[in-house]
Amino acid sequence: MASDGICIAVPTEENGTAAPSSDTPALKIYAGADFFGCNLKDALVAYLRSLPGVEVVDLGTDKYYSIAEQVGRLVSSSAAGGSSPETRGLLSCGTGVGVSIFANKFPRVYAATCSSAGDAVNARSISACNVLAVSGMNTAADDAVKIVDAWLRTPFKAPCPASGGVDWPDDIQAFLDNATAEMAAIPNPSSAASTCAICCLRKGIEFEPVGIMPGGEMKIVRESPTSAIVRFKAGSVEPAHHHTFGHDLVVMKGKKKVWNLTKKESYDLEDGDFLFTPAGDVHRVKYFTDTEFFIRWDGDWDIFLDEDLEAAKEAIDKELASGKN
């Protein structure tokens, strides 16, 4: 129970996550702020840490768009991977609007700026808000605690001020039942038709699953030297591994991060970025959005795993939460 008898909304099948075991937190919240919101964020972090069942990762203070990007990326990645416990975000800047704008650039992030407990109830009930943004200049700490409590205790589709405080009628319930899946499926704006040779080569290709890498598919398009087009779903992870060959890759679309554990370096890759990984270098990868890339290597395909998937996810979550490369 939270203070004043308010229940934390433990994840359930209704809101899309499995209930945790007794020794696991019900919620994991990434928090951050800019200079104008840091005092309010610190007060809310202290409050949240007093509640049982809530794990808070404080990412500190940065420019409002930078801290919102960090929180948005982490919540998006967790939502894509269906991680447990349920993961949410808490952001504060001067108005609470700027951080909300930039957190919402990531898929499966539903950030809302709330200035009252009623706003928070509406945002949770109607839009399954998973990132709460508050104003560091206009919201007192006591009022912000009430907003956070309302955000924590309100499940998706609950009665709210917008519904008149009663259950939504059947037609609205039916709409909401499909809403979050439809929202998550909304793609980024389509780009103009490409004349890139690699992109044209990809058209019409039928991919085959990469059994050793969940979420991955590939199609070899040329042998000796070998080249392939590979794609991974958002939230996918490649555990640490190495090859007997070096390989070049070019990101066609998407966003990924590669940790070269041999060289102790990391690389953030987006559309058009190139990376060469030498033979034998151990590396792990995290995909933040649906990603496709072109890869070329010499010799026959091979792969040697250096850790299991769960160890990789744990290591990546720790790296991202710490803000380290």
TrEMBL record:
Q: Which Pfam families match?
A: Cupin_2, LacAB_rpiB
MF-aspect GO terms: isomerase activity
Its name, as the record gives it, is Cupin type-2 domain-containing protein
Gene3D superfamilies, alphabetically?
Answer: Jelly Rolls (2.60.120.10), Sugar-phosphate isomerase, RpiB/LacA/LacB (3.40.1400.10)
Q: Where is the Cupin type-2 domain?
A: 229-286
Record GO biological process:
carbohydrate metabolic process
